[in-house]
Model the fold of this input.
Amino acid sequence: MAEDTIFHKIIRREIPAEVVYEDDDLIAFRDIMPQAPVHVLFVPKETVATLNDLPADRPEIIGRLAVAAARYAKEQGFAEDGYRIVMNCNRHAGQTVFQLHLHLLAGAQLGRFGTPV
Ligand code: AMP
Done:
């Protein structure tokens, strides 16, 4: 069922997560396998499996994730040092959870990215 990813279960509080922010539209929680000292996932509550599925007339779904991530970076004090946001789409990007999410990575100098493996 499309609405039964692990992130939907976190939204419904059926499985635990370290939630750092939530509002009516989105939830943010720490990644269970962090790839940087700070690794937080920002997830819309509305079901959107991948970026390919984002309705063309609903760009605000991603806009809200980006605004929340930038606000979190400022509140946590690493906005000036910098951070990276990443959104993986489908197989070649390694997407593993098919509910749209934005990765926020920070807390150290990050390596380059995008190299084929
Ligand atoms: P992606 O590869 O872009 O689909 O990212 C999915 C991310 O979800 C990965 O970085 C996983 O470590 C993370 N993840 C999977 N299950 C959980 C969970 N239960 N709680 C927090 N993060 C998770």
